[in-house]
Each structure stands twice: as structure tokens, then as C-alpha cells.
Model the fold of this input.
Amino acid sequence: MDYKAEKITPYGTDESKTEQVREMFDSIAPAYDFMNRAMTFGIDKIWRAIAVKKLRRYRIHSILDVATGTGDLALLLNRKLSPERINGIDLSEGMLSIAREKAKKAGIIGKITFEKGDCLNLKYADGTFDAVTVAYGVRNFEHLDKGYKEMLRVLTKEGVVCVIELSTPQNPIIRTLYNIYANHIIPLAGRLVSKDTRAYSYLPESIAAVPQGKEMLAIMENAGFRNCRCYPLTFGTCTIYIGEK
Done:
């Protein structure tokens, strides 16, 4: 099935969405962490912490962090869950270089491996990881169904997937304020901070287009996940999705 989010691309060129997303994140990598903190007023840290807390009930020895970006979630997973190993993959070498530098400063280079990889064609064998995580990356998937099926494939028998994704508030008043902020203030701030003038217009477009709530849960279930549930956070501006193999 085709989803609206799959058609929303950073630059609107003839290149695949995957390639455009890679180019975009290479472009904005130096400003990415600053913009994340600024756009969410630092609440993105709380969202990641809540997601990690929800994973505590599972026996997790190995984790694949898809669309790992600059490594914030992978580093937090290492601190809080102490798994035997974490593999963080991303399309963007620019983002990965920052993640590796963070791991080096934290003195945990051997515990987390950051490497280039495509979520639609994972190089890992079936049943490799106890958990797969994705923070703010699912809306960038070129093919949602294939992405979820690949994540399911590499999970162990009782493995778990945890997705953190930005979402659109359902309350009309909150949604109006959110739309003003997302569609006007964020793109303006992005143009001031980043040389990529298109990237922070793509952000609110991709959030508005990505399947949310029950629709996202249905995609997960169709991919083969069971016991799927979601947890809206901060007036619905972010949602955590959990599914089990």
C-alpha cells in the first residue's frame, strides 16, 4: 500500500526519497542537535526517556537503533538498559560522524557501533536483535510496509519494536497553535540556522503526512507485529508506538 508520507520528499526531485533524505541530513547535520532542542524546547529528551522506560519490561541484550541520527537514543539506551551491544544505523554519514564523536567523548566506542545502513534493506540476519528502535525516523521511510517488515525480520522471537514519532495534535485549539508554530516559525528558524532552506519546510509536511495513531498501529499489525499500542505525549505532538514479534 502507498502512503501519503512516502510521497513527501525533501527536495521534490527525481531522486528516490531515500537518497533525498540522505542528502538532507548530510546537509543539516551540523545544526541538527541544536534545532532539535530548540524546536521541542528540550522536550525531545523527555520523549526518549519515556520510550526507554517502556522497554525496561523486556529482556534486551541487543538493540538495533534505526535512523540513529546523531546517536542520542542509542546513547540513552546504553546508559539506561546496559545491553550487551547496540548497532546504530543511518543513511547519513554526516549524522553518523557526530554520533561517533559523542560515543568517543562518552568513552563507549566499543559498546555502540554506528554504521551506514538502509532500513529497507537491513544487512543483519533474521532474529539478530531483541529490540529495534526508531526515533523521529519512520516518516522518512520511502516504503513504510517494507521498513516495518525488515524490522520484524531481524527481531528475535519475543523481540520488541519501539517507534518515537512526531504527530499532529487532535485538539482543535492545540492543533491551530501547533500548525502556526510548525508551518511558519520552524521553517523560519531553520533558514536562519541551517544552510538548507528546504529541510525545515519538509519537517512539518512529513509530520502531517505520516500515518498516526490507529493507522500506524494497523501498519505495524499488517507487517506482523502483535500487541501493538500507542502512547500520545505532550498534547499529541509526539507518539510512542510499541509492537511485539
Notes: DSSP finds nine helices and seven strands in the chain. The mean pLDDT is 93.
